[in-house]
Predict the 3D structure of the following.
Amino acid sequence: MVIILKSDPDKNKVDNLRLWLEERGITAHETVGISKTIFGLVGDTGSIDIDALRALDIVEDVKRIQEPYKLANRKFHPDDTIIKIGDALIGGGNFTLIAGPCSVESEEQICAIAERVKASGAVLLRGGAFKPRTSPYSFQGLQEEGIRLLKKAREVSGLPIVSEITDSAQLPLFEDVDVIQVGARNMQNYELLRRLGKIDKPILLKRGLSATYEELIMSAEYIMSGGNQKVILCERGIRTFETYTRNTLDISAVPVLKKLTHLPVIADPSHATGSAELVIPVSKAAAAAGADGLIIEVHNDPANALCDGAQSIRCEDFEMLAGKLKTIAQCAK
Ligand code: PEP
Ligand code: MN
């Protein structure tokens, strides 16, 4: 349930209303907008008399919400959430490029790529250190050493870093990582999500391979209900009957998630397609659909990449693409 307050409501009356709700086990999450203040109620509102609430002189309107997610719901947080990471902004009309290799492989590799993608317009550097691979025999990432090298690349390039966590036991290693990624395979690892809800750090939450929009948003809700409101949603392709591409980018996810939630929504054309030549047109499509940004796998030597080389574009392709994407994103506004 959402309570929309009249503009400039009497502060004592607002406090009394909050207290009255709390006595009934309901928490009021306050959102102060430009012209209105909104209370998003979390708790069992079943016994609340809507008409009695509407009759209060500080209340403009009361709405019941059908959706099971409250904190991520745009209905009571109408303004876009904008997340600031160093100098980078995600959400609220900004178009943000995150780029870098699938995995951190060596200091030379990550530092060279960081400098190149930065020069082309990326504002965040991605690089996996803990890799959730389908086969236990595949390269699993450099792990702790990978995080160390990623930080080194941040030092050299000035770009904030994004890396994937696969288990909450790794959290101490991520203390100085700017954005923590939750991969598709962990989207419904609720214990991990709860732990990430307790920290003050942006979380890039990827859609599970067969997760619905509502399931993705409910996973965001797990993080947000713990107190951490800095969640970035990522459409990275879902599993369909098509086998030509690695996954199928669900382009509708971008406008739908932006309509249903106030969170930034980005797309990952690399894992969606699995093919470097498709990354370029699909990136353009996601930008045109209104994505708040993209996360793209870029490698300085894709043919010899230790992970996801086939879908990694070269630094020079990224440079060419980045210029075009800014124009497309501008037109999509
Ligand atoms: C990744 O970003 O390298 C990754 C493993 O992504 P996803 O979880 O979307 O498969
Ligand atoms: Mn990858």
In short: The chain has a mean pLDDT of 96. The longest helix spans residues 315-332. Residues 102, 271, 297, 307-308 surround manganese (II) ion (ligand 2) (CB under 6 Å). Residues 117 and 332 are 23 Å apart (CA to CA).
